[in-house]
Amino acid sequence: MDMPHLVMEQVLDNVDFLTILNLRKVCKSFRNLIDDIKPINNLIIIRIYLEFRRIKVELVFDFEEVFVNFFLFYQEGPEENSCCIFKDFVEPEFAVQKDGHFVDAFLTDFEPILKNQRSKLTELEIKVNCFYYDDDYSFLSQSKPQSIFSRFLFKKFESVSTMTCIVERRQDDNIANEMIDGIWRILESRTVPLETGKLKLIVPKSSQVVRLLRSIKTNSLHGNRANQGASSPGDADLTLDSKCETFKTMEELVISKFYMGNPILDFLHIPKLNIIRDSIPREDILIIKQVGSEFFLIKLTREPLHMLPGDSDETYAK
């Protein structure tokens, strides 16, 4: 630690990613130095998947064009307020058990990774896939009871099962919000946005897309709405911040299951565009024809085209 700061920076720039993580645990001096220098590493892809009651993380490293995948799993433990951590699909009995929620353990381990990543990533993916489909939440026996007594028991079971489904879905929603909010807080604490070539987001709420995009610099965004069941609430209307620097320099935008609220003029600078609108006026269609983008696809749902004053039914149909 007595060596000059420039020398230490050169040394850390030539140390591999996992060694830096181990070195960061040696003492506070090394931890503060690494957090200050943010050394360059060979990490190129981060994929974070929130599954049912566990988080799977895939890290891809580039060792001189030899790509190595590394998996980490954080899941609920056998006891209350406990979690298990294991890697590379090993048997759960070999997992490391810790106290606390598995989302908190994940955020603690990955805070220095997301906060100190200086080199540009090839891909960053955050996917929420912890929700069952609505039929799975409310699964009931298909055989109807015949007797009066059994019908009474069936109705009681149906009521309890419905309440359990609501509680389960609410727990899944809270876990998803907790993980995404934690990732956003880490990214927001960075001095500069995290840079990645491609960003993939599958999240329940449109506001989460907007928040994450403010702390991430990318040229390509693929956004999708996570399944929450047919009866689950959630905001499906997405309006991106047109003043955001990432949005201004975007070259590809693909949005599914979110209904874009921005005017068409906000997207004219994006060469590759695939979005969903709930309605589109005739003026926007004329603008699209004039632009002639390389890839410009708009899916119309929910409502028909707006008829302008003086338009006939024939003009409206065309």
Automatic annotation (TrEMBL):
Record-linked Pfam families: F-box
A single BP term in Gene Ontology: innate immune response
All copies of domain F-box, residue ranges: 1-48
Organism from which the protein derives: Caenorhabditis nigoni
Source organism phylogeny: Eukaryota, Metazoa, Ecdysozoa, Nematoda, Chromadorea
Annotated protein name in UniProt: F-box domain-containing protein
